Amino acid sequence: MNVVIESSWKKELEAEFEKPYFAKLTNFVRSEYNTQIVYPAPKVIFRAFDLCPFEKVSVVILGQDPYHGKGQANGLCFAVGQNVPLPPSLQNIFKEIESDLKAPLKNKSGDLSRWATQGVLLLNATLTVRGNMPGSHQEKGWEEFTDVVIKKLSEEREHLVFILWGNYAKAKGAHIDRTKHFVIESPHPSPFSAYNGFFGSKPFSQTNTYLTEQGKKPIDWL
Question: Is 111 a catalytic residue?
Fold first, then answer.
């Protein structure tokens, strides 16, 4: 099966692409794109990987599934296409950045590729979704695939930062070896939970402090 994905990830995940569950997932996703409105566009399904090669990852932010509105999903969790209004969760993430780093955002675009190219893997647990039907592609095989991604990073890399927002991401964090990586957990930035501990959790400064201590380059979140 020919999956078009960045070469270092292709090498790491080659075995997954040959497994029966992935063949079943591929058939399901292909059929959905042929018969339904599905996001994101097929060419950006693996964009998080394409912008952030395996050996370049220094931070992982976990999302659940892509935005399900027209023009929103762009292959990076929490991000939206250029010139698309910011969803509430992303608005709250930007507010926390400004509060945490005590500086105004220089770049208010919701695209977030500027983080990905610095080594932030913006990974959704499910990489596709049917339009206006949140969660519609869950339990089809994507979660199994992205669990392997997390395990590979945990096992083969050292001193990464994993940012887990909300209970769904925390559960997925079960695959992370916390003796060799730094894990930041808090409530989700959604308006339903942001005031229960997301605001004031300072994930961005914590991340940069840790990376600096490990001799790595901090992320320019602004």
Answer: no
